[in-house]
Amino acid sequence: MQFNVAFAVFAMIASALAAPTGTELSERAAEVDGTLYVCTDNNWGGACTNLGFFNNQCSNMPSGYNDDISSFGPSAGWECTTYTDINCSGATYSGHQPGFATLPSGINDAISSFRCEPT
Question: By mean pLDDT, which of 27-36, 62-71, 101-110 is the weakest?
């Protein structure tokens, strides 16, 4: 019994020490230049996430989002160009904040990569 109590106390202390603080989270957010908010359904529905990016650097969509984006919008002050193929090639569609709640045929569920630049 003493071992279980000691282990539980140790586990709580270790997890508290490992949990990031608000400052650490802010510093992590500063590690990218901006974010592209993407959703798998129209009108910002389905699975959504913020994808971090660096200025003018091509980023391929992560699995689960490749060829499945139906809404997107970049951080304020950025214009993002999306591409229908990986490595920023293929047909393009560009936009700035607030982005697009719905995408046109040919782009909807076809985005594989993106690149963003300041406006």
Answer: 27-36
